[in-house]
Amino acid sequence: DIVMTQTPLSSPVTLGQPASISCRSSQSLVHSDGNTYLSWLQQRPGQPPRLLIYKISNRFSGVPDRFSGSGAGTDFTLKITRVEAEDVGVYYCMQVTQFPWTFGQGTKVDIK
Amino acid sequence: EVQLVESGGGLVQPGRSLRLSCTASGFTFGDYAMSWFRQAPGKGLEWVGFIRSKAYGGTTGYAASVKGRFTISRDDSKSIAYLQMNSLKTEDTAVHYCTRGPYGGAAWFDPWGQGTLVTVSS
């Protein structure tokens, strides 16, 4: 199984300041079709997960442009340019390149 | 509005069965793969399994932890996906979410239902 490792596991951030989450996979997430199926999800307190980013860097419909994804191969990053109060929650990276689909442990973002 | 609503969760004894439903609205259900995920209390997300659309054979895939015990099916005429859970174990206790996807060559998952809690305990 592909192991997804996120850092940090907790990220206290000042409102208006940037935040960055790293996700590293135990093997390359490049699929045989050439695509890299790495997504980022947000889970606000008491809510179901919500898709933010798919295929490394594609923002899903309705996602604010302060969220961006980057990376390649085994190293990926989610960045929030200016954290807002509504961004509080747990963020997960997820790979669907190879079965079984796996998640990172989650990174909790809260306000200092 | 595209929406998914899970139902069927509850308290069940170890070794018993439960069937969850995921009722879809706001989109052409039969055109999409559907997936199930779960989240144990206070823990992270775990993939359970998925079912392709009929156009892609309606085939299924499962996580090792549920393979042979859980079965995913779909009724496109009712826009419902099912998760049949047999031989339940205490470690199956979790909120179970259904989601539309993976979609096409982008492999995105949206939306996610609110989830239904399954508690396995004697």
Explain how this protein is built:
The complex is a heterodimer of chains A (112) and B (122). Chain A is an all-beta fold and 112 residues long. In chain A, 0% of the residues lie in helices and 48% in strands. In chain A, the strands form two sheets. In chain A, strands 2, 4, 5, 6, 9, 10 and 11 form a seven-stranded mixed β-sheet that branches. In chain A, strands 1-3-8-7 form a four-stranded antiparallel β-sheet, with no helix packed on it. The model of chain A has no long low-confidence stretch (mean pLDDT 97). Chain B is mostly beta strands and 122 residues long. Chain B contains no helices and ten strands. In chain B, a hairpin with an 8-residue loop joins strand 5 (45-51) and strand 6. The relative contact order of chain B is 0.31. The chains are: A mainly beta (112), B mainly beta (122). Chain A binds chain B through residues 33, 35, 37, 39, 41, 43, 48-51, 54-55, 58, 60, 92, 94, 96, 99-106, and chain B through 37, 44-47, 61, 63-64, 97, 102, 105-115.
Shape of chain B: globular
- Assign an overall shape of chain A: globular
Number of helices of chain B: 0
| Strand count of chain A | 11
Q: What order do the SSEs of chain A take from the amino end to the carboxyl end, as H and E?
A: EEEEEEEEEEE
Please report which band the strand proportion of chain B falls in: under 5%, 5-15%, 15-25%, 25-35%, 35-45% or over 45%: over 45%
Into which percent range does the helicity of residues of chain B fall?
A: under 10%
Identify the biggest protein-protein contact and residues per side. Answer: A-B, 25 and 21 residues
- Largest sheet properties of chain A: 7 strands, mixed
The helical percent of chain A reads under 10%
Outline the low-pLDDT stretches of chain B. Answer: none
Structural class of chain B: mainly beta
The largest β sheet of chain B comes out as: 6 strands, mixed
Query: What is the terminal-to-terminal distance of chain B?
Result: 40 Å
The whole-number mean of residue pLDDT values of chain A reads 97
How much is the radius of gyration of chain B in Å? Answer: 14 Å
Order of helices and strands of chain B: EEEEEEEEEE
